[in-house]
């Protein structure tokens, strides 16, 4: 006779079969609908094209969501006190009579599944977890939550359910409790990718995920408390709940590094959500990939709020007054611009409250008007009509001497030019900084070594002074156009299409390492570029060119997408993908808001999520709030992990200057990642930082204490291939020693073997990363070690694909590994970052095992570590 457990499993299997059958039906219906829309012959009007695209996009999105639900479609059920049962899954489904058969985990009714406890059962008598593989039920785990109702009493009791707080039946066979499901998920080997946690979300996490969407929510918690997981699930929740708004505006998720974004990039798609833009701080300024590096102190200074005033002053410094009257030869005349006339034009332009580049039109209109009057006066014969005056103004603008003189007074500028000049030209920085920076701080910011002589810098338009009257070549496109409208009132917008050619000259500095336009931007430069862009506005032609480039890119994506659709719907032979793309080439709505937003600095996102928010500098906050002017945000972080020197120690200090007290803080307290034994060691480091800091409680123990391995305890000869490697390539005097290499190779090999396909990180101070990585790649050919590559961004991206990665602490932020080999922890303490915080981060990356490799004495707070 089958056991109750077998009966229950068969019952659940039958239900799961029904769900998958329905999923297949709905998918087929949706696919048919999409096919119908795409094959329909519309009227060809722009409106019908838009309508068709909107329908096609909606069907395609729904299909993507249904596809994403295939794995673990249903993972739980709730038995209500009134005898009803509700199944919870990745998406909601109804049967053909429109009766709900599966509830989306984000629906209000699903709240009880995550929050019910024995003390507060939320109207439930039982919570059931289903373990599935593919479409098969492989396990059932029950949490009894109250007096069983008569209908389910038999099954529940016979299950011998081992529930949270209901351990009376512990030891029951294959039936597991929800807690056991959680522990099983946490103990699984790491894959280098984060997974969704909808089946095991905990009550404190669920509360944060479903918190109100408006306002700023800070999620504070120690390492491994699930802050990142919660932030991502909250994004999915918000998209579900407020889809109409957020599909239009998008969600921006900012994470610390490319490797981190790669680590988390599967979570939202697995939940069927794609309407998000991921970015690192280095990629937040469209068109710039800030891969440069610089000293920590320089980066910290660039993030200082004083830089906002410095950038603003630098912009104003480019709106110049001549020291004395300017004389400009023009034809047979000499034209004059008095200091007062320029000052008047400048005041007028500034009062227009437009960004620098468009206020320039006001400035030019004033001065060209003045110069035109001078020319008219010098023409014998008297008054001219408006057309003739306009022709003179036009001729003046075409004159290179006049053009150059005016450019010098108010040049068109790109953000790159403005910020580049600040760091390549000490005089520009000194002028803009005034008394705001000390000479030492200015030296820290300068691209030039401080010892270099101060070199007078040519101004953009002074770089190649042009004299005399030489007409610009007609090929200069809109140079034939005036930079403003000649008729309307002075401060109105010029008619479109009569913008000046952006005479943008690369700013070069004699003796500078490279022209400003070719600088390798660093992440800390990005907020400064954005600040500058805000004050400058886009140079007109640049904007035009960018629009053309974007349109071309869109067309290419359109063709690519059409090919995907043809593949997906099996329309080969019926529809030509390129023709399909052509048919779409009317107003395009297929491109999601998220895709547009990625390239548009002025895009206003509907919600902002920032991970590792403790690392965000004041200048970067300014940028982020510009991206999300509605200031609805979820910020997750841990102040004890802040690497920035001088960083704030409270959220009030961190956020107050920009958002006052308009934020609420929620705390997560349970560490799901780091076993208790490792956390005990990390706790000592935390206390050394500040005895008042609270250590999160680990949800599990590893059954094994972290260990220390002393350098010298592993002989060089004991590591196969090391002696030969060192004979060909002896260790550098200031690099890792032969004995250190031996110890690290030994520890990494042992941990990789124990991780059995999981991930191992060797964490070292930045300058040892490269030599250690090279040595391990040579010594452990059987173990893939993540390679370095020429492009640091992709090197980081690769790090999680290999079983062993060698990384600096900064690169491991937010990540986790089965095992960590921490190299010379004492060295981290003397780095310019906050050493104790870095050490705390490094120690808390492991889910299973930690080994510390050290020479000399361990710092006092690590002395509890056992020897190997
Ligand atoms: N409820 C849960 N069920 C299953 N796994 C969970 C749960 N909560 C957290 N985890 C797992 O715990 C690990 C740590 O989570 P996460 O990376 O979000 O923590 P964190 O607070 O962001 O850590 P850090 O501050 O160190 O970056 C992840 O593997 C995550 O999937």
TrEMBL record:
InterPro entries, alphabetized: (+)RNA_virus_helicase_core_dom (IPR027351), DNA_helicase_UvrD/REP (IPR000212), P-loop_NTPase (IPR027417), UvrD-like_ATP-bd (IPR014016)
The entry's keywords: ATP-binding, Helicase, Hydrolase, Nucleotide-binding
E.C. number: 3.6.4.12
Region Disordered: start-end pairs: 139-166, 446-505
GO term, biological process aspect, one: recombinational repair
Domain UvrD-like helicase ATP-binding per the UniProt entry, residue ranges: 200-675
Highest rank taxon of the organism: Bacteria
A molecular function (GO) term: 3'-5' DNA helicase activity
Biased composition (Low complexity): 151-166
Top enzyme category: hydrolase
Residues that bind ATP: 221-228
Gene Ontology CC: cytosol
Comp. bias (Pro residues): 450-459
Name used for this protein in its record: DNA helicase
Species: Frankia canadensis
Lineage of the species this protein comes from: Bacteria, Bacillati, Actinomycetota, Actinomycetes, Frankiales
């Amino acid at each position: 006779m089958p056991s109750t457990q077998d009966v229950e499993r068969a019952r659940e299997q039958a239900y799961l079969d029904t769900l998958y059958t329905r999923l297949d039906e709905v998918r087929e219906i949706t696919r048919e609908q999409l096919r119908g829309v795409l094959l329909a012959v519309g009227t060809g009007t722009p409106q019908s094209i838009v309508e068709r695209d909107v329908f096609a996009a909606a069907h395609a999105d729904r299909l993507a969501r249904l596809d994403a639900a295939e794995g673990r479609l249903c993972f739980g059920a709730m038995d209500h006190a009134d005898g009803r049962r509700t199944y919870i899954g990745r998406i909601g489904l109804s049967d053909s009579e429109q009766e709900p058969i599966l509830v989306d985990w984000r629906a209000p009714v699903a709240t009880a599944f995550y929050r019910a406890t024995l003390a507060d059962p939320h109207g439930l008598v039982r919570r059931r977890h289903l373990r599935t593989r593919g479409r098969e039920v492989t396990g059932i785990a029950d949490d009894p939550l109250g007096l069983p109702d008569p209908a389910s009493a038999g099954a529940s009791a016979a299950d011998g359910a081992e529930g949270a707080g209901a351990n009376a039946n512990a030891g029951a066979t294959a039936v597991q409790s929800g807690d056991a499901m959680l522990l099983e998920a946490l103990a699984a080997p790491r894959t280098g990718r984060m997974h969704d946690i909808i089946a095991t979300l905990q009550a404190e996490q669920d509360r944060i995920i479903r918190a109100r969407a408006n306002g700023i929510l800070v999620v504070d918690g120690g390492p491994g408390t699930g802050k990142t997981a919660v932030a991502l699930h909250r994004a999915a929740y918000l998209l579900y709940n407020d889809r109409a708004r957020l599909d239009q505006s998008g969600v921006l998720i900012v994470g610390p590094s490319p490797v981190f974004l790669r680590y988390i990039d599967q979570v939202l798609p697995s939940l069927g959500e794609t309407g998000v833009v991921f970015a690192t701080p280095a990629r937040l300024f469209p068109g710039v990939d800030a891969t440069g590096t610089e000293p920590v102190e320089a980066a910290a200074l660039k993030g200082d709020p004083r830089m906002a005033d410095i950038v603003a002053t630098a912009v104003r410094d480019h709106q110049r007054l001549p020291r004395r009257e300017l004389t400009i030869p023009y034809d047979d005349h000499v034209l004059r611009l008095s200091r007062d006339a320029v000052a008047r034009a400048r005041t007028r332009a500034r009062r227009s409250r437009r960004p620098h580049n468009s206020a320039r039109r006001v400035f030019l209109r004033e001065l060209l008007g003045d110069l035109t009057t001078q020319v008219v006066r010098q023409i014998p014969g008297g008054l001219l009509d408006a057309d003739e005056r306009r022709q003179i103004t036009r001729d003046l603008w075409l004159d290179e001497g006049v053009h150059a003189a005016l450019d010098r007074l108010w040049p068109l500028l790109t953000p790159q030019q403005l910020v580049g000049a600040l760091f390549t030209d000490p005089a520009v920085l000194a002028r803009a900084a005034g008394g705001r920076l000390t000479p030492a701080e200015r030296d820290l910011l300068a691209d030039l070594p401080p010892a270099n002589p101060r070199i007078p810098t040519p101004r953009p338009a002074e770089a190649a002074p042009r004299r005399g009257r030489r007409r610009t070549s007609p090929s200069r496109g809109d140079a034939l156009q005036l930079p403003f409208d000649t008729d309307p009132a002075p401060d109105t917008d010029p008619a479109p299409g009569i913008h000046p050619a952006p005479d943008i000259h690369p700013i070069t500095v004699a003796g500078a390492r490279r022209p400003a336009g070719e600088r390798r931007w660093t992440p800390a430069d990005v907020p400064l570029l954005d600040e500058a862009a805000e004050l400058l506005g886009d140079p007109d032609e640049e904007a035009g060119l960018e629009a053309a480039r974007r349109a071309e890119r869109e067309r290419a994506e359109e063709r690519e997408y059409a090919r995907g659709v043809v593949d997906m719907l099996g329309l080969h032979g019926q529809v030509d993908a390129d023709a399909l793309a052509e048919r779409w080439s009317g107003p395009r709505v297929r491109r999601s808001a998220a895709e547009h937003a990625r390239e548009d600095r002025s895009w206003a996102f509907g919600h902002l999520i920032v991970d590792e928010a403790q690392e965000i500098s004041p200048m970067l906050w300014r940028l982020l709030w510009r991206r999300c002017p509605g200031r609805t945000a979820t910020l997750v972080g841990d102040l004890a992990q802040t690497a920035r020197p001088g960083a704030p120690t409270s959220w009030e200090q961190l956020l107050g200057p920009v958002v006052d007290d308009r934020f609420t803080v929620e705390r997560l307290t349970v560490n799901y990642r780091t076993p208790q034994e490792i956390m005990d060691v990390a706790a000592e480091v935390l206390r050394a930082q500040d005895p008042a800091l609270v250590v999160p409680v680990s949800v599990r123990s590893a059954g094994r204490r972290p260990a220390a391995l002393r350098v010298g305890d592993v002989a060089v000869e004991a590591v196969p291939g090391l002696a030969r490697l060192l004979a060909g390539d002896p260790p550098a005097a200031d690099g890792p020693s032969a004995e250190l290499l031996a110890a690290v190779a030994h520890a990494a090999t042992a941990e990789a073997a124990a991780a059995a396909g999981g991930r191992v990180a060797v964490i070292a101070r930045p300058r040892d990363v490269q030599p250690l990585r090279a040595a391990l790649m040579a010594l452990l050919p059987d173990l893939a070690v993540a390679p370095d590559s020429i492009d640091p961004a992709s090197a980081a991206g690769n790090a999680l694909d290999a079983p062993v990665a060698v990384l600096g602490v900064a690169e491991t932020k937010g990540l986790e590994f089965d095992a960590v080999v921490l190299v010379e922890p004492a060295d981290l303490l003397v780095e310019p970052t906050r050493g104790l915080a870095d050490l705390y981060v490094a120690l808390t990356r492991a889910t299973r095992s930690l080994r510390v490799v050290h020479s000399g004495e361990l710092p006092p707070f690590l002395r509890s570590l056992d020897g190997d």
